[in-house]
Design brief:
Shape: elongated
Number of helices: 0
Strand content: 35-45%
Oligomer: single chain
GO molecular function: carbohydrate binding; galactoside binding
Protein name: Galectin
Order of helices and strands: EEEEE
Keywords: Lectin
Helix content: under 10%
Distance between the termini: 16 Å
InterPro entries: ConA-like_dom_sf, Galectin-like, Galectin_CRD
Length: about 60
């Protein structure tokens, strides 16, 4: 939606949430901050966050 602040896509390596299965890749465009964040979870611990910008997508616009 045009008013979106952020969203996330997680590629999780199983269905369990508590305790959480590992997440191979977490991608989160953060429109207000102007960058895309990447991360992962191994053994319920987040890895180092990687941020990449400037933002190349906009809220409410389609992208491929």
């Amino acid at each position: 939606p045009p008013s979106a602040v952020r969203f996330a896509v997680n590629y999780q390596l199983g269905p369990t949430l508590n305790p959480r299965d590992d997440i191979a890749i977490h991608v989160s465009p953060r429109f207000a901050e102007g960058f895309i964040t990447r991360n992962h979870i191994v053994s319920m611990t987040w890895g180092p966050e990687e941020n990449d910008g400037p933002m190349w997508i906009q809220p409410g616009q389609e992208f491929e």
